């Protein structure tokens, strides 16, 4: 009969430390959810509590006054996130595969070019001129997808992962008559699943949380993403809660208006969907972070 292994003091200390770290990350989000369903007067009187004294869904009622607009904004964000993530992964993996090949004649120059663009960018004004005047993408869905599709930082991360793949596999495939496209799609990409999942998660977070490109390039209400819509709602809430103090003739009872709870409800709506997606990629995410740390 196998006896249970006793935990040493070091194991207890390490496990306890990471439990505290995990709680420090989970508890704030639970507090945000609790505040979003707390009555505004209770927040003012009792402060923030994990278990609200007085429950209320007024904040969500205020946000969902126009559900069609909110659902449409979610649709725009989901479309840009899926299309942008898939396109970015394709370009990133292809570029990384090229610069990871030692037999590529211009590998040093291409790698330097990728690294240089990570340190120095063209700036906001040239980017705006390129998108609006030369590419004519203003008020199109592509203005939300193309600007963040290729990141040199992600290319270098992917390059480091692909470089760990034995080159003998590529050489043997060439001997068998496989083309470069077949080697890339049937050998490199399946082996790079952990890195693709990790970078895909980062890229999807960037697209999901992006609102500044929409502020610059989008005027049509049909192309407003969820983050920009929630930002506008937040500005409206700030205006309504402060206007009664500085403008005559406006009487708003700010104690009953869902100010603090609405802010937290907006946070839940913005971050909630991605919180549910993350567990499905956790296995690949952890493997992608640790791969390449050990050799042999």
UniProtKB/TrEMBL annotation:
It holds the Pfam family BPD_transp_1. Signal peptide: none annotated. The chain crosses the membrane at residues 12-37, 71-99, 111-135, 141-162, 183-203, 262-281. GO terms for cellular component: plasma membrane. It is found in: Cell membrane. Residues 74-278 form the ABC transmembrane type-1 domain. GO terms for biological process: transmembrane transport. InterPro entries: MetI-like, MetI-like_sf. Its main location: membrane. SUPFAM superfamilies: MetI-like. Keywords: Cell membrane, Membrane, Transmembrane, Transmembrane helix, Transport. It is a multi-pass membrane protein. Belongs to the binding-protein-dependent transport system permease family. This is ABC transporter permease subunit. The lineage of its organism: Bacteria, Bacillati, Bacillota, Bacilli, Bacillales.
